[in-house]
Amino acid sequence: MNEIVQFENVGLRYGAGVETLSDLSFTLYPGSFYFLTGASGAGKTSLLKLLYLAQRPSRGLIRLFGEDAVTMSRERLPGFRRRIGVVFQDFRLVPHLSAFDNIALPLRVAGVKEKDLTTPVAEMLDWVGLGDRAEARPATLSGGEQQRVAIARAVIGRPEILVADEPTGNVDPEMAVRLLQLFEALNTLGTTIVVATHDIHLLSKVPGAQMMKLEKGSLSDPTGSLRNPPLPRDRA
Amino acid sequence: MLSFFVIPGHDRRLIPEGRLSGPMPWVIAIMIFLMVLATATGLAFAEAGQNVSDQLSSRATVQIVQANPDIKAQQANDAAARLRGMALVEEVRVLPPEEIEELIAPWLGQTAGAADSREGSSLLEDIPLPALIDLKLVRPAGSEELESLRAAIRPLADNARVEPSSGLIAPVIALVQSLQWIAFGLVALLAMATAAAVIISARAALNTHKETIGVIHLLGGTDRQISRLFQRRIALDALLGGLLGLICGTAIILLLGMQLSALGSGLVQSLGLSWYSWLIIGAVPILGMTLAMVTARMTVMGALRKIL
Fold this sequence. Notes:
Structural class of chain B: alpha+beta
Strand content of chain B: 5-15%
Shape of chain A: globular
Number of helices of chain A: 6
Helix content of chain B: 55-70%
Number of strands of chain A: 10
Low-confidence stretches of chain A: none
Radius of gyration of chain A: 17 Å
Order of helices and strands of chain A: EEEHEEHEHHHEHEEE
Largest sheet of chain A: 6 strands, mixed
Oligomer: heterodimer
Order of helices and strands of chain B: HHEHEHHEHEHHHHHH
Number of domains of chain B: 2
């Protein structure tokens, strides 16, 4: 199985402080589902930033889609970022845009023509249960609705990797399960999913998912999945 | 071309900032207005200097200095005859004494001599003025050709001097050229001030929309896509402001033009604008817009390069 992400001895330091992440070495495989857990401040968001190319590491090697992401030129980054969907912890919806326009944003950035994006965006709005809120601005949406718009925006471009930072943090347990089902559905279509959460109860909700645990910036590997490719989820 | 200025609705919503609501178009309108005035002034001086220079560069004056009026008249006629036979000379005219008297009258007065004890005597009789021969040449003459004219008449009048007419007005031409370059220097300064205003405006816009830009970046937006959002908006603001500045500037120029032609005197009357000067003035808002657009692009691209 070809790896989709490979970290080797990766360290991350902000400014002159201590290392936020130390000696991270792991491999993620296409079509797998990973949970990234750890206490607050363990470095989950920093690790995800490295994954979605918002940050370069201070040391080590990161290979993404088979290419060196550390020395990759700035000009090539947008092309790689379009292959990664991100659900930010704080959603980062554009406040002036409607739910429809927020979800359509990755497609417009990718140069999809207006006539070709209406249907997929409308379908995505229905998929996250916001078909009747297409014109609503983020400020008029509840936290859970905003989160669903953020998820819809992350998956509309059919990314090869979906990175979600605490995607269930602002929703009730019922909605959390629904969102995980959305991720699973996407995962069965071949997208690699990485979900950062401090809620360990979620892990049992996705059978066959692998777990990575961060402790003070270092990674432990409770399921062993980081050393060996996991079995395909339908056989797990 | 025009489609460049049509900002799609979703882009307008992405970076919302109502056109003409901010100070940018008004700042550019003022800058372009001043640039139009300075450009028109520079071009008018350039054209006036060129016109006067063209008129005078193919003319020369022969002065024959001789105390004896009879010999002076004889030498003038002989020199004129010799000059008429030269290929370089198109037209020769010996200035009659009355015309010479008129030429110096503004300085000495027509009756300056008559006020003396010898009542009724002419000014020309009191002052040993040279005889003057006005030459129109077939082309602007260089120093060697002027020397050939001198050489031709020297045997007839050894005190004869040949002066190119352009030399007489050289200080005025130099002044006009200085004013012209000062005007163009002002245009350059105003262009720099416009660029500075655009830089400040673009940086402020970048700062205001920092979060949105960050999101677009992380969704795979390129620097070029992001800079286009700002560049197009600033170009449109600059074009609208520029047109306003052009209209106001043109109105002032036309008004001043009417007042200058009413003065009807010498060099002032030669101040004017040809059709190609008007073309240059008309291009000022377009150049202003291009400058604003390029400056905005460079500013935004420069700022984006600092983030990953």
